[in-house]
Design goal:
Low-confidence stretches: none
Strand order of the largest sheet: 1-3-2-6-7-8-9
Shape: globular
Helix content: 25-40%
CATH class: Alpha Beta
Strand content: 15-25%
Number of strands: 9
CATH architecture: 3-Layer(aba) Sandwich
Largest sheet: 7 strands, mixed
Distance between the termini: 25 Å
Number of domains: 1
Order of helices and strands: EEHEEEHEHEEHEH
CATH superfamily: Alpha/Beta hydrolase fold, catalytic domain
Length: 223
């Protein structure tokens, strides 16, 4: 049986009964699982049969003692960030395996939603897992590594959303991610939130919920 040391807040399906989908939120640097779990309440009307979980990252954050980090953040040096993502990946992989097993679900029912550092984790792990999720939604993040990208027909559906006034991770990071994934033949939907900094606005929230709804419906049809 898969085991995991990660844990965090959860929301059961709004419709009651066993879940048909699992949405995993990956929070940003210095936050914790509580930072994103509220998105599940916003999306519950669109995804009434989805369970939501938002694990706390495995390390205490050096810059925010009450928060957590997936890895030590050294902005501007993507090689260091890439190495940090790889070090954190096994713990997240193990958590996803354990959570799917606990819910009695398969990878076709899984979506990853990241913010900032969590988007780096969502893209890296989501694109390299043996059993890939149906969808990845990345807010205000970046693609930390382009190694081991999947073949186009085996990739999750991907949506990237970024504010054009982001002072932490510039919107150019989304452009670079979109172009790198596109060069590998992967299809990426994207949206730039006008006048938005390092955060998620109403448009981004709405688009993310719609994207997940469509991706899960498509996976069900394909299955």
């Amino acid at each position: 049986m898969a085991t995991s040391e990660l844990d965090g807040p959860r929301l059961a399906p709004a419709a009651g009964g066993p879940p048909r989908q699992l949405v995993v939120f990956l929070h940003g640097y210095g936050a914790d699982g509580n930072d994103l779990i509220g998105l599940g309440r916003e999306w519950a009307p669109l995804l009434p049969h989805a369970a939501f979980v938002s694990p706390n990252a495995p390390e205490p954050c050096g810059m925010a003692p009450m928060g957590c980090q997936w890895f030590d953040l050294s902005m501007g040096d993507m090689s260091i960030i890439g190495a940090g993502v790889k070090r954190a990946a096994p713990a997240l992989d193990s958590f996803l395996d354990a959570e799917l097993e606990r819910q009695g679900l398969t990878a076709e029912s899984l979506a990853l939603v990241g913010f900032s550092q969590g988007t780096m984790m969502a893209l890296s792990v989501g694109l390299t897992r043996k059993d890939k999720p149906t969808a990845i939604v990345g807010y205000s993040g970046a693609l930390a590594t382009v190694e081991e990208l999947p073949a186009p027909g085996q990739a999750p559906a991907i949506l990237l959303v970024h504010g054009d006034m982001d002072e932490v991770i510039p919107v150019e990071a989304m452009t670079m991610a979109r172009e790198a994934l596109g060069q590998a033949g992967l299809s990426v939907q994207w949206h730039v939130s006008t006048g938005i900094g390092h955060g998620i606005d109403g448009d981004g929230l709405r688009l993310g919920g719609q994207f997940l709804t469509q991706a899960f419906a498509g996976a069900l049809t394909a299955g």
